C-alpha cells in the first residue's frame, strides 16, 4: 500500500474527517461526499498552517505521552487491533503518519490555548448578569413520565380492524381499572409498540413531544391516572401518567459554576475564531515590495 508523501498531513486529516463525520474509511467516500471532504480538508490544513506559522507557536512542544494517549483513544473506537490497522491501511496511513498527524493536531490545540491565556475571563458578576438578562434560558418545562399500551389499527387484517382494536383496548383498560398496578404487565403482554419490552415506558416528556392527540390527553391527567382509549394515526392507546415534574426556574446557585464555564468556552471560541482570521489574513496576504 502506498502513502501520500506529497502532503502526509492531508492523509491523516481525511482519515479523521471520514470516520468522525461520515462513519466510513476515506476510500468509501465517493461523489459529492468525496468533493466535500476534500474541500473541508484543504480548508482545515490552511487554518492549521496559519496557526503553526504564528509567533504564538514558538517554544511549544507536544509531549510524546500525549501522542500515545491520543493513539490509544483512536484505537478504542475500533472493535479490535486488527480493525484499527485495517482502517489505517485503507486510508493509506501508517503509524508514523498517524503520530505526525496527531502531533500536529495537538500542537494546534496548544497554540489556541496559549492565545487565550489572560484574554478570556468571566466573573461571577458577569454570569449573574447573563442569568438575569436571559431568564427564559433557565426555565425548565413541565415534564410527565408516561407509559402507554398500543393496539394498532390495520384494516388489512381482520383482527386489527377499528372495531376490534377498540374492543381489545377497552378490555385491557377494564382490567387495569380494577388493578392499576398491572399496567407494566399488560403493556408487556398486549402492547404492539417496542416500548412493551420496558413495560410501555416512553419516558419523561415535555409538551409537544408526542402525537397531538396523546399530548392533549396526557397533560390533562393526574399522576397515577389511566386514560380512556386515545386514537392516533397508529391505533388506540392507553396512557398512564406517572411522576409529574412541575415547571420551574433553575436557581442561580444551582447553575452558576456551569454557566461561568459555558460563557468562558463561548468567549474563548469567539476569541480564537477572530485570532485565526487574523493569522489567515497574514498568511495569505501578498507580500509587499519595498523600493530600496
UniProtKB/TrEMBL annotation:
The keyword Nucleus does not apply. It comes from the Bacteria. It comes from Marinobacterium zhoushanense. This is peptidylprolyl isomerase. Residues 141-243 form the PpiC domain. Its EC number is 5.2.1.8. InterPro entries: Nitrogen_fix_NifM, PPIase_dom_sf, PPIase_PpiC, PPIase_PpiC_CS, PrsA_foldase, Trigger_fact/SurA_dom_sf. The keyword Cell wall biogenesis/degradation does not apply. Keywords: Isomerase, Rotamase. Belongs to the PpiC/parvulin rotamase family. It catalyses: [protein]-peptidylproline (omega=180) = [protein]-peptidylproline (omega=0). Transmembrane segments: none annotated.
